[in-house]
TrEMBL record:
UniProt name for this protein: ATP-dependent helicase C-terminal domain-containing protein
Residues that span the membrane, as ranges: none
One of the GO BP terms on file: negative regulation of DNA recombination
UniProt domain ATP-dependent helicase C-terminal: residue ranges: 16-106
Any one annotated GO CC term: nucleus
Length: 110
């Protein structure tokens, strides 16, 4: 399945990083499922950006440098805390991005 290839993960990561560096304040990043979100986050942490000759930063490191990254929790009881964290991140200069699942807790409880 193409969604589980490194090429797919790198393409998504580079798109997210580009958007995060361009858009002020907050962005929402929706995934098709919790499995896909978890898989891609693992890949973002594992894969290094080969375009950065002097640095071996992972794509995840670049994302967290661009904005505070908040991930939708699997437990509904943690959702309010995570939403507050995102809101605080959006209000500071760096901004924040929220990784969530389409038809997940964040979208349905909005």
């Amino acid at each position: 399945m193409f969604r589980h290839t490194n090429t797919y993960a790198v393409g998504i990561a580079e798109s997210i990083i580009s958007i995060a560096k361009t858009v002020p304040q907050g962005i929402l990043v929706f995934f098709a499922s919790y499995n896909l979100m978890d898989h891609l986050i693992s890949k973002f942490k594992e894969l290094k950006d080969s375009n950065q000759k002097l640095s071996s930063k992972s794509y995840w490191d670049q994302m967290t440098e661009a904005k505070l990254v908040v991930v939708e929790p699997k437990q509904k009881s943690h959702l309010a805390r995570v939403r507050s964290e995102f809101t605080r991140g959006v209000q500071n200069e760096q901004g924040a991005m929220f990784f969530a699942v389409c038809r997940g807790k964040v979208l349905l409880n909005a």
